[in-house]
Design goal:
single chain; about 25% strand
């Protein structure tokens, strides 16, 4: 099989790139790491080895900065792991998994004596009464649909079940002893007695 001259150059360049990257990868993995006792550096005028445990504060930060150095190295750093093993956690005693703490807040003893006892809020006022009165029947005997005369002050209404009277009251059910009315503004139902 014969290749074009332009494809031949691209193929040779790709093979050369693969060979060079393989060599760099091999060289990077084979680079020896000196043991921790050999590695030493100067931190603020003192000689610190990787196996020693520094004190807290600025010396610890300088030690970690010295160990990390300016380069990024993907190898596992056992000296940093040994340093972190010596750190002891000293918490505040608070349970981080609790939603709230059970400890009540401290209150000065004089403040509780001056306060009045807690009174619950008053219940909501009852809904206003429905001011409709039964005035009479509007249907004729034998008519299956019942209608009633209802009055509010001087104004009269003829209503069947499902009608809205005075733009506020809905007639739910017309019975022989009472009429069930709902105040649509307050969602309040009341029965109006049928009496003459």
């Amino acid at each position: 099989m014969k290749l074009d001259p332009s494809k031949k150059k691209k193929t040779i360049a790709a093979i050369a790139l693969v060979v060079v990257s393989t060599m760099l990868l091999y060289w990077g993995l084979r680079m020896p790491t000196p043991p921790p006792e050999v590695r030493k550096a100067s931190v603020s005028g003192q000689t610190v080895s990787a196996s020693s445990k520094p004190r807290a504060g600025n010396e610890a930060r300088a030690y970690v900065a010295m160990l990390l150095g300016p380069t990024i190295n993907p190898r596992l750093r056992f000296d940093l792991l040994a340093f972190s093993e010596g750190v002891k956690y000293q918490g505040t005693g608070r349970d981080i998994f609790a939603e709230y703490e059970d400890i009540p807040a401290p209150v000065a003893p004089g403040l509780l004596a001056d306060k009045e006892p807690y009174l619950p809020p008053p219940p909501p006022p009852p809904p206003p009464p429905i001011k409709l009165k039964f005035w009479g029947w509007a249907s004729q005997p034998g008519d299956p649909v019942r209608a009633a005369f209802l009055a509010q002050g001087e104004t009269g209404f003829v209503a069947r079940e499902g009608d809205i009277v005075a733009r506020r009251y809905k007639v739910i059910k017309i019975g022989s002893a009472s009429i069930e009315i709902e105040d649509v503004l307050n969602n309040n139902r009341q029965n109006i007695p049928v009496a003459f």
